[in-house]
Design a protein that fits this description.
This protein is an alpha/beta fold. The protein contains 9 helices and 8 strands. It starts with a strand and ends in a 9-residue tail after the last helix. The structure holds NADP nicotinamide-adenine-dinucleotide phosphate.
C-alpha cells in the first residue's frame, strides 16, 4: 500500500516536534519545514530515534516570508504528488513589534498569513489523497482577541497579548471558512487547542510570564497527542469545521463563531497576500 504523506510546519521545537515523532511511528512519510539547518538535522535525528521510521524529509521554509513559502511549495511538488495530512502548527509570539520582509507584523504573519497562503498552494496535493486532513493549531487564547479590520496585523496599535490572541482567532476563522469551502471535497479541516504546554513559544516574552506559565504547563507530549489524534484517529474521520480543546470539542468565543466576520476576514487575508504575491490564486 502507498505510504501516507504528512507535512507539518514547526517540527523543530515544542509540540510539533513530539507530534512529528508520534505520527512517524504510524508508518507515515513524514515531511517537515524548518528555517534552520542545524535544528532541522537534529529534529530529523530525533524523529528517527523516537519512531524507528527513517522515511523523514525536510525542506527549508521561512514562514515569515511569502516568497519562501512559494519556493518551498514549488520544491515540494517536484518530489511529492499528494498530501494526506497537513498540520499547520508553527507559531511565534513576539513581545515587540517586528515586521516580516513582506511588511506585516510578525506574529500575525507567521501564525496566520503564512499558513493561509501555504494551504492555498497545497490544496491540489491534498485533493489527490483519498481522504485528507488539514489541522490548524489554534489556541484558547482566541477568546482574548479584539480584532480590528482597520488594523488586522495590529501594527498601528501593537499589544503583544492581543496580537497573539488575534492570530489564534484568525486560525479558527480560517478553519471555519475553509471547511465550508471544501465541504464537498474529501478534505476535512479542523482547529485545536493543545492545552497550556511546555515549549519554546514564550521565548521572547518577559521572564515573569514564562515563570507563571511554567507552573500550569502540561508536558509537551500531552499537547502533541491532541494533534496526533486529529491526524490519525478513526474517531474524527469525516469531522470538519470543528474546534477541539485538547481531546473534546471545544467552546468557541462568540467572535470566533461569527461566520460573516470570518468570511470578511478571509477576503482581507486574500488581499493581504495578493498585494505581495500578484499571482496569488484564491479559492
Ligand atoms: N505551548 C502552548 O502552551 C500552546 C498553547 C496553545 C497553542 N499553541 C500553539 O502551538 C503551536 C506550536 O507552538 P509550540 O508551543 O510548540 O512553540 P515552539 O516550541 O516555540 O515551536 C514553534 C515552532 O514554530 C517554528 N517557527 C516559528 N517561527 C517560524 C518561522 N518564521 N518560520 C518557520 N518556522 C517557524 C519554530 O521553528 P524554530 O525551531 O526555527 O524556532 C518551531 O519549530 C503554535 O501554533 C502555538 O500558537 C501552543
Amino acid at each position: 500500500m502507498e505510504k501516507k504523506v504528512c507535512l507539518l510546519t514547526g517540527a523543530t521545537a515544542g509540540i510539533g516536534k513530539e507530534a512529528a515523532a508520534m505520527i512517524a511511528e504510524d508508518n507515515f512519510k513524514l515531511v517537515f519545514t524548518a528555517r534552520n539547518k542545524e535544528r532541522a538535522e537534529n529534529t530529523k535525528k530525533y524523529i528517527i530515534e523516537q519512531s524507528g521510521n527513517e522515511d523523514i524529509d525536510y525542506f527549508f521554509c521561512d514562514l515569515a516570508s511569502l516568497n519562501s513559502i512559494k519556493s518551498f511549495t514549488k520544491e515540494f511538488k517536484e518530489k511529492y504528488d499528494k498530501i494526506d495530512v497537513l498540520i499547520n502548527n508553527a507559531g511565534t509570539w513576539e513581545s515587540k513589534l517586528n515586521y516580516t520582509e513582506d511588511g506585516y507584523e510578525r506574529t500575525f504573519a507567521v501564525n496566520h498569513l503564512a499558513h493561509f497562503y501555504l494551504t492555498h498552494l497545497l490544496l491540489d496535493l491534498l485533493a489527490k489523497s483519498n481522504s485528507a486532513r488539514i489541522i490548524n493549531v489554534a489556541s484558547a487564547a482566541h477568546k482574548y482577541a479584539r480584532f480590528n479590520f482597520d488594523d488586522p496585523d495590529s501594527s498601528k496599535k501593537f499589544d503583544f497579548l492581543k496580537v497573539y490572541a488575534n492570530s489564534k482567532l484568525a486560525n479558527i476563522w480560517f478553519t471555519n471558512v475553509l471547511a465550508e469551502k471544501l465541504k464537498d471535497k474529501n478534505i476535512t479541516v479542523n482547529s485545536l487547542m493543545p492545552g497550556v504546554i511546555v515549549s519554546e513559544l514564550l521565548r521572547s516574552l518577559p521572564f515573569p510570564i514564562k515563570q507563571l506559565t511554567k507552573l500550569i504547563s502540561k508536558p509537551t507530549t500531552y499537547g502533541a497527542k491532541t494533534i496526533v489524534r486529529l491526524a490519525l484517529s478513526e474517531e474524527v474521520q469525516g469531522i470538519t469545521g470543528t474546534y477541539f480543546d485538547e481531546f473534546k470539542v471545544g467552546k468557541l468565543s462568540k467572535e470566533a463563531q461569527n461566520f460573516e466576520k470570518a468570511q470578511k476576514f478571509w477576503e482581507l487575508s486574500e488581499r493581504m497576500i495578493s498585494s505581495k504575491i500578484p499571482d496569488f490564486q484564491s479559492i
